[in-house]
């Protein structure tokens, strides 16, 4: 008998038995086939029972795989629930398949009897309609490759074949870049994974591209049909040539196992080591609000579709806010996890399916949306690739967000009053990104994995985490003392004193090692040929400043004051701001502190400050200095607080989004008025306080010589400058890859700014994400920057990179980089030009 088994799940027992009989006759009983169908209710026998499905799977379970075929509706839900009852090792061997019940079962048993493996059996089941479609004269391509329109006969189809070289293949972030690039072109783009022998899928569908299961070394064929086919394929080929911007080194990889703290003891729980570090604190449970969905008939499907669109629009705004906040906390690279979530909400295949479900079945928005999200999640779960299976977390995360908005529920509360270890079944990436590392000292969950996006974010935030522990932890009372070791993957409930002693010693040793590693970070950053470059920190909260100092910051090059204005219903008072600025300056202990005045608008809207009409292009709208010059009351309050805090500290003022000389002069007039008012009131301040500007708008570069005569320093913001120079919104996944700060066009702007600043005798720093990219360090040194300002975690690495280089070498690289024709070629140039330092 063939080892692969089939389970048929149907609302109707008679239907399922009939399908089993037909399938069994095809292979003379060579394949185990179990049935889970109907419910034990004589009056209403139609339905499905998860326990019955579980028992059917268990009765035929095989390590070679079990394929579950379902009819519709609750059959899918019952099958998913049944899998949860199985031991974890068995869950990986059960595959839910969307193939049609009758044709799918016949094709599957024939393939199983022929000795095919589970993935070949699934492929046969999925392609089961092909023979029927061909016989009936239906285009088989439209059946096998769902949602692929007929190709345009006017244009020939162009094709390229590529070998994927980046380490994790098309995981969430590269897939988002791929789909975003494909969507920029008019041509129809289709992709096939030749290594896995998949069907063709649409290149503009995040779900279809991701579920190709593309890993390192796989061969893809990409076709394009349309007038811009050559350009489209060239753009996609460039992504692969550049490894999607990844350096193929394991970034934020799970911690390695080193040693156990102690043999198993009373109250010890074993799990997955997901984020290193030791935490000892009382537990606090987190239980996300469960959203119950009821399906019901609607008379007006279009209004239901409008509800879905409205919820998706709001969800995009929420995810954008998470992205912005996460960029401040964990950096743009890891925050790009949320780019894929945005693309999920723009996936044409997903949106078409939701619209069609509402229109065809006249069901409510919640039920239709949930069904479509479940289908996508199931397609991820059926992949044999464990990394891609984990992307279900992201699908569920964004799906639940829209569902919560449709249901009118409030977001879950994740604010803790006292430091604690968070205990939960699981955490979504959105939940994890909202955690405060000063309050959440550790994470302990009953599910999850070390390569999940939630685990990556926890590691970036520096929160120790042990995942996948026994479910008994969910029954602990809040306040119960717990200890966990994120390196060994163990947790202890009410640990005994000797365990606490061992963990405290380990924590102390780990902290000592960290301090030693940071020792070099506290030295000046000096190149081989003796040029010192100051390395400052970008911070976005009062909590960041201590991390910055500990990490070796020589000052704060950018204090984003927006955090003072977030999560409130009104603007902060002068006294509130004064207290925070003084507290930060005190921790810096006479190191420079550059305070950027309020920069809202664009990707950082504040509801209580927004008045008037919504903006079609907020990045080109009422933001930064423009907003402050219009709201002089708010601007003056902030300037008064900064000036009052400046006594005895090295505080400087920086104005954001400067585009004209008039803006600088107007801001200086307001500053002068505030200084006069403080003088008249007898309030002291630093009368010689320096004023600088952010250079992030192309017009500011063009008149940099004039602006340099008005201010004391420049700070180049490459995040915004890149998007304005390249006319591409960096928060829009479809064009974000164009806003690359290493593009020669952007680098020439940076060079022009530095030359103008130095000609006027003022200093110039750079505080964009580019400063933290050590690949870019030789470029930034060669351009002649005086200061780099980066997120605190990046300071040690940036200082090391500076120490390995010489100015002479860096200037030579810049001269060549400015002549390149793309960011890809600039990166290639740097990679091949930087030589290791002489010993």
Structural description of this entry:
The protein is an alpha/beta fold and 839 residues long. It contains 33 helices and 24 strands. The strands form 4 sheets. An 8-stranded mixed β-sheet has the order 9-16-15-11-12-13-14-10. Strands 17-18-19-20-21-22-23-24 form an 8-stranded parallel beta barrel, surrounded by 5 helices. β13, α19 and β14 form a beta-alpha-beta unit.
- DSSP strand tally: 24
Total of DSSP H or I helical runs spanning 4+ residues: 33
The strand order across the widest sheet is 9-16-15-11-12-13-14-10
Low-confidence stretches: 137-147, 249-265
Average pLDDT rating: 83
Distance between the termini: 67 Å
Q: Which quaternary structure do these chains form? A: single chain
Outline type: globular
Fraction of residues in β-strands: 5-15%
Counting helices, strands and paired strands, the structural category is alpha/beta
Overall radius of gyration: 29 Å
Classify the helix fraction into a percent range: 40-55%
Sheet having the most strands? 8 strands, mixed
Summarize the structure.
By secondary structure, the protein is of the alpha/beta class. The chain is built from 33 helices and 24 strands. Mean pLDDT is 83; it is low at 137-147 and 249-265.
List keywords for this structure.
839 residues, alpha/beta, eight-stranded mixed β-sheet
